[in-house]
Amino acid sequence: MELSRKWRSGDTSAYFNAAYDSATASRIDSGEYNFAPAALAAIADTFIDLDHDQRLTGSVGVSQQWHGTTFSADAVAGSGLRRRYLNGDHLPSYVTADLAANPRVMLGGFGRLEVQLSVLNVLDRIYEIRDGSGVGAPQWGMRRTICVGVGKPFVR
Rounded distance, CA 147 to CA 40, Å? Predict the structure, then answer.
């Protein structure tokens, strides 16, 4: 189940998303060699929460255009994916925040360039997406990352 809302007024826009998820299954049809025989036997007769089942997820963001540059901020929060034997528990919740600036630059006869500077996971929150204790491999969320992009719009 998902709830979304977006808003725009002049040079400012914002959005909000919230989702509730419940995903269960029984039997493993491929990659059986990755699991202990006891786990395969238990899963064959019982529905379990899937490793990608995160009950609550939310995101919020805002952007503002100012003097030819778009500034934006957003955040994502999650209740944590499943873990432990037969995915019977979940990892701790997490929140990450991102910032970006996207100026448009004119370079004489070369024309317009679009530049983007993004800082992902601004607060450098360290969080596990999966810890490998349930059905699924271990995985960590992205650490603070700075991305720079330059593009030239194609105009016919």
Answer: 42
CA geometry: angle at 102 spanning 98 and 107, to 5°? 155
Amino acid at 139: Q
CA distances from 118 to 24, 41, 91, 108, 122 (A): 36, 47, 28, 26, 9
In this prediction the pTM is 0.78
Tell me, what amino acid is at 25?
A: A
Residue 85's SS3 state is: helix
When computed from its CA atoms, the radius of gyration of the chain, rounded to whole angstroms, is: 21
Averaged over successive runs of 10 residues, the pLDDT of the chain (156 residues) comes to 97 98 81 76 81 89 96 95 77 95 88 93 92 76 95 79
Residue 134, number of CB atoms within 10 A of its CB: 23
The length of the chain is 156
Task: Give the chain's end-to-end CA distance (angstroms, integer).
Answer: 42
CB contact set of 36 (below 8 Å; sequence gap of 6+): none
